[in-house]
Amino acid sequence: MTSLNGKVALITGAASGLGKAIAELYAKHGASVAIADINQQAADAVAAEINAAGGKAIGVAMDVTDEAAVDAGTDKVVATFGQLDILISNAGVQIINPIDQFSYADWKKMLAIHLDGGFLTTRAALKHMYKVDGSGKSHGGIVIYMGSVHSHEASKLKAPYVAAKHGLLGLARTLAKEGAEHGVRSHVICPGFVRTPLVEKQIPEQARELGISEDEVIRNVMLKDTVDATFTTVDDIAQTALYLATFPSAALTGQSIVVSHGWYMQ
Ligand code: NAD
After folding, report:
1. C-beta of 39 in contact with ligand 1 (< 6 A)
2. Is the pTM of this model over 0.90?
């Protein structure tokens, strides 16, 4: 079995959906995992489940848009587990509206969670990953951003989401260049639609906005360009995150990996 033994992973938005699935898989493969989420109760519950199953986890209260909370939460993970090897910057929400009707407040909220959150969690993690040990070598690490097919494609009603997810490619590629000399690699995972709470909420919302049935949203919007009319799963994404975290060399860095049943091919 691929091993993350001895590794420490901080996963934001891990109280639900994709982040939770990654945390569970990483724990199964030996990593100590920090479940960071704005919803502390839910984060603690996921950590308790992982501990009960024989893994090692803590819940961390963290709003990824709050600079002080991100710095303090990340330091707490290192104080608890001794180091930080993997950051999965995953927390996210969705707000849909046509551009002409988007409030500036909602636009800024989306950019703050998806893009500022990516920056703040990265900077807090690099403080530990760039740390030089007695042998003069940086600790190193891997940063994985949860992008989306919307890091490459646009869809109606999702302007700030699409803009922010495109922006993460720039952040990841810059980090791949700056981080190389410190042993830090970075990637963006770009999922197609996965039936998490974030997507379940959108199905009726899109049906209303587009004036079509929920079934049509699934068939004609969400799965329209897949090769097999199939949703991506949380496990597909967790397995991809495991592959990237265990890849043995920096041959793989600065990449975006699209996992979408062929919706987007690059
Ligand atoms: P989800 O709603 O199941 O989980 C998101 C988690 O993020 C929740 O636990 C929530 O409490 C947390 N969160 C929200 N705002 C936060 C904040 N400010 N600080 C910290 N935590 C916060 O959603 P999901 O589908 O698992 O989404 C996870 C990521 O995957 C998001 O970035 C999303 O854009 C991306 N994504 C999802 C899909 C999909 O189809 N589900 C597709 C592509 C990309």
Report:
1. yes
2. yes
